[in-house]
Specification:
Layout: E1 8-10, E2 16-20, H1 24-44, E3 53-58, H2 64-67, E4 74-79, H3 85-90, E5 97-101, H4 109-112, H5 121-124, E6 135-137, H6 139-158, E7 161-162, E8 165-172, E9 207-208, E10 214-221, E11 225-226, H7 230-246, H8 257-270, E12 272-275, E13 281-282
Parallel strand pairs: 6-12
Antiparallel strand pairs: 1-2, 2-4, 3-4, 5-8, 7-11, 8-10, 9-10, 12-13
Helix pairs in contact: 6-8
Domain PIPK: 1-272
Biased composition (Pro residues): 191-201
GO molecular function: 1-phosphatidylinositol-4-phosphate 5-kinase activity; ATP binding
């Protein structure tokens, strides 16, 4: 069960996830506004970090569960960026780490009202993660990473999407320095290509860090919240009224797409450290 009320299932081979999209504002946005631009964009941007959505399923018949909103009417089938984790655990390897990253400087009622005293720790723990480390990349890796993310977020901003996240996976290689593991040679990076381009290494299959210690995967998830839909507009009005009293600022779901994109870009640029070929470092 996800924090938004979605349910997740995995296929038997762990390659794909099936996620319910229970909110009308979200599945109608994806169907009516984003689906065609998304498909056209993905066809021309093979290195996009937007998660690969392979199918969009909707029930057309009438059922009691959907009338009472006890059963979702729409699901998406998407690639599982954690594919391979269960096999690694069975082999006794160090478990993979993951973070669901969003800009944390926004107003979060669960965290910021009464210093979080009115909300359970379980609820607060499901808010956006923070990555207190650096992804060490070569200049070429970093430029490619930033270029893809900037193009991806531009598409989302043009279609009014906010509140999406960067899902980051870190896999230890068991090596301690670059001499032991040159970039791209880790056995954590699959040699077989995925079902669609590009061939490995990519952020979908794994990119070896410049220091040889980790393999990273990354994908942009949850780009279904659009500012022009009814529920987001109502939430924006509610938070605007609240700010007349408290001046707490906007939430990540009520800010503008352009402003969210700017903070999102600052966030991912802030977690990358560039290691130049001559040993010099930058950020």
């Amino acid at each position: 069960m996800g924090f938004s009320g979605s349910t997740f299932y995995s296929t038997a081979d762990q390659k794909y996830l099936v996620k319910s999209v229970p909110r009308y504002s979200e599945h109608s946005y994806f169907r009516d506004d984003l689906l065609t631009p998304y498909v056209e964009y993905m066809a021309t941007h093979p290195r996009s970090l937007l998660v690969r959505i392979c199918d969009f399923l909707g029930a057309s018949g009438v059922s009691l569960g959907r009338i009472l909103r006890l059963a979702p009417s729409h699901h998406i089938v998407m690639e599982n960026i954690m594919y391979g984790r269960e096999l690694a655990k069975k082999k006794g390897e160090i478990d993979w780490e993951d973070w669901d990253l969003k800009p944390t400087s926004y107003f979060f009622p669960e965290r910021d009202i009464a210093e979080g005293a009115l909300t359970s720790e379980a609820t607060k723990n499901q808010l956006a993660d923070e990555f207190h480390d650096k992804i060490i990349l070569t200049r070429e890796q970093a430029d490619s990473f930033f270029s893809s993310l900037e193009a991806d977020t531009k598409l989302l901003a043009e279609h009014n999407a906010v509140d999406y996240s960067l899902f980051l996976v870190r896999i230890q290689t068991g090596r301690e320095n670059q001499e032991e593991a040159t970039v791209g040679d880790s056995d954590m990076v699959p040699t077989a290509p995925p079902s669609v381009p590009p061939a490995p290494p990519s952020w979908r299959t794994g990119v070896a860090s410049a220091d040889g210690k980790y393999v990273f995967r990354a994908a942009i998830l949850d780009f279904f919240w659009a500012k022009h839909k009814i529920q987001p507009r109502l939430m924006t009005l509610l938070i605007s009224a609240w700010n007349l009293i408290t001046n707490s600022g906007h939430m990540s779901i009520t800010t503008t797409p352009e402003e969210y994109r700017e903070r999102f870009m600052r966030m991912y640029r802030g977690i990358v450290e560039v290691r130049e070929s001559d040993g010099n470092q930058g950020s």
